[in-house]
Amino acid sequence: MAGTLLAPPGGTPLERLVQVAMERGYTARGEMFSVADMGRLAQEALGCQAEVLCGGLGGPNRDHVLQHIVAGHPLLIPYDEDFNHEPCQRRGHKAHWAVSAGVLLGVQHVPSLGYSEDPELPGLFHPVPGTPHQPPSLPEEGSPGAVYLLAKQGKSWHHQLWDYDQVRDSNLQLTDFSPSRAADGREYVVPAGGVRAGLCGQALLLRPQDSSH
Q1: Cystine design at 153: which of 1, 54, 58, 98 (Cβ 3.0–4.6 Å)?
Q2: Which residues span the membrane (predicted)?
Q3: Mean pLDDT of the region 163-171
Q4: How many CB atoms lie within 10 A of CB 134?
Q5: Can you name the residues that pair with 81 across neighbouring β-strands?
Q6: Which residues contact residue 121 at a Cβ distance below 8 angstroms, ignoring those fewer than 6 apart?
Q7: Can you tell me the distance from the alpha carbon of 43 to that of 20, in angstroms, rounded to the nearest whole number?
Q8: What is the DSSP string of 24-39?
Q9: What local confidence, expressed as pLDDT, does residue 212 receive?
Q10: Strands 160-163 and 147-153, how do they pair?
Q11: What CA–CA distances, in Å, run from 110 to 18, 136, 138, 161?
């Protein structure tokens, strides 16, 4: 999904991604418990820049993540998946990946230039394609319901809006390998240090190869 955003319209076939990941020893059956390995895979198979973010999605990383998405680049986030695909907290037992490529900001004032109001939803403004526009000031961390990520997860047909803080909190508690997976008799590639070392508090920022920060 991220590859399609980076190099539309074709992207890179899923089979190619899995093949490279298995050849490099990143995965045994399609699982990916390492953000660093996912970054190496993206760089090789998608030909893009990949930045591993450590320390969680909050604090000083928050503006960096939001500016990355506002610039139109995809973000890959490991998180615990609830039954409805939204973020939850299961200590990593339901760890999965989602891609985010959009953000909904609740702001006090819409910048005057470069935005148009949605014809069907008053109060919702979109950047006008091809028009210079000033990014809106980002809501401060802790503002309730002010930032939502537009996210998509591979098992869902639909995009969803996820509260940023819920995504941040889910990503920060990925610590344990699922007991049911550990007992199913199958082989998985888990990095040294386990799920905590491979996923916890980490995300992947992808950019086209010719893009500057």
Answers
A1: 98
A2: none
A3: 96
A4: 11
A5: 87
A6: none
A7: 11
A8: TTS-SSS----HHHHH
A9: 67
A10: antiparallel
A11: 43, 7, 11, 20
